[in-house]
Amino acid sequence: MKFVIDGMLGKLARWLRMMGHDVEYSNNMDDSELLIIAKKQQRILLTRDFELYQRAVAKEVDAFYVQGQTEEQRLAELAKRFGIRLEIDMATSRCPKCNTQVEPVSKEEVVSRVEKSTFEHYTEFWECPKCGQVYWQGAHWTKIRETLKTAEQSLQKQKRGSA
What we know:
Strand 1, helix 1 and strand 2 (22-25) form a beta-alpha-beta unit. This protein is an alpha/beta fold. It has two domains: 2-89, Rossmann fold (3-Layer(aba) Sandwich); 103-135, no CATH class. Strands 2-1-3-4 form a four-stranded parallel sheet, sandwiched between helices. The protein has a three-stranded antiparallel sheet with strand order 5-6-7, with no helix packed on it. It is built from six helices and seven strands, in the order βαβαβαβαβαββα. It is globular and about 55 Å long.
């Protein structure tokens, strides 16, 4: 699924990229640029700006008005609306910074690019071939998993509420 996201949803852009979705995002794009990108590249516009959402609909751009106040609520909304799976699969994950699909890299290739303790404690690493950022499933993954679990619980509540 391909999205273009307005400047108010930067964290959501990172989440969707990690979850493997192609996301165009820059907090420097104005509304007209967002609409052009959505139309030309056949992307779904995600926005918290109701006026932009209305403009998009009027121009027959596929758009979704994001109402959730937390990342968990926003992820649950998107999962419900678009059938997005609330999980991260490193085989399809994209760089949260530049949107390029990350690739597995050998531990030896990152020895000089990660902290010594990180190198000693982790065996699997991924790298963005475009920006060179190195990733691993470190202690922060506990928070990532909690966020996705909370989003899943919120999704289940939404489904029960609309049944």
